Amino acid sequence: MKLISWNVNGLRAICDKNGLDWILKEKIDFLGFQEIKAHKEQIPKKIYELGFKHLYSNSAQRAGYSGVMSLCNFESEVRECDFFEDDEGRVLEHRFKNFILFNIYFPNGQKDEQRLNFKMKFYTDFLSYLEKLLKEGKEIIICGDVNTAHKEIDLTHPKANQNTSGFLPIERAWIDSLLKLGFIDTFREIHGTIKEKYSWWSYRMKARERNVGWRIDYFFISKNLKSKLKDAFIREDIFGSDHAPVGIELDID
């Protein structure tokens, strides 16, 4: 099974740029979009032409903001958010067999202290929810834009960003807690300490051209799926957004 996650930074904009054409050439079982910035009635026709059997979306109440979408070729029970009061369209939770697959656009905390507190509450509530699911014996996959780089190796200028939301100690400690709970950062599991591999670049100062970036988009899996992990990757060759698609391959039917 091939699963891909991509913060498209505007679904309508990326369709206007023909930024989804590459999807037609690949065999993808699950595709999770974040930051779609569209309500259901605004979803472009091109999305329905990608050939997926099922389409689900969770849009923010606020127009042109946030939102997630999942395209998949398998049946699942879909929930929007069971652990957080969410009017920003941040979560789609898919349940099938013993699996739970989350497509999440985690909050950004850079605006001000209030938004940082909002982000940290989201993190804390989600971690508690995951702990409950693990106790139930679920096999869990988490994908999305986590909006935090974990280690110094995960961004170009770690020292310059020590006091920037997205690389604050409290945010990085949350990823530590997630891993201690038993989750695996799939990219690091496959590629170890490989350097200069990023998933987001600022639009300013030709950052992507110079590969001045951050790895803030992830696939995490619970340790009971470790033996099924076959590959993890970042598709730096795909353009159209300030993020690159990230993905994994799992040996599951």
UniProtKB/TrEMBL annotation:
Site (Important for catalytic activity): 217
Occurrences of domain Endonuclease/exonuclease/phosphatase (ranges): 4-243
Biological process according to GO: base-excision repair
Keyword Nuclease: yes
Annotated site (Interaction with DNA substrate): 243
Gene Ontology molecular function, alphabetical: DNA-(apurinic or apyrimidinic site) endonuclease activity; double-stranded DNA 3'-5' DNA exonuclease activity; metal ion binding; phosphoric diester hydrolase activity
Gene3D superfamilies: Endonuclease/exonuclease/phosphatase
Active site: 105, 145 (proton donor/acceptor), 243 (proton acceptor)
Sequence positions that bind Mg(2+): 7, 35, 145, 147, 242-243
Keywords of the record: Exonuclease, Hydrolase, Magnesium, Manganese, Metal-binding, Nuclease
Top-rank EC class of the record's enzyme: hydrolase
Entry cofactors: Mg(2+); Mn(2+)
InterPro entries: AP_endonuc_1, Endo/exonu/phosph_ase_sf, Endo/exonuclease/phosphatase
Domain of life: Bacteria
EC number(s) stated in the UniProt entry for this protein: 3.1.11.2
Cofactor comment text: Probably binds two magnesium or manganese ions per subunit.
Pfam families in UniProt: Exo_endo_phos
Sites marked Transition state stabilizer: 147
Family as reported in the entry's similarity comment: Belongs to the DNA repair enzymes AP/ExoA family.
Protein name (Swiss-Prot/TrEMBL): Exodeoxyribonuclease III (Exonuclease III)
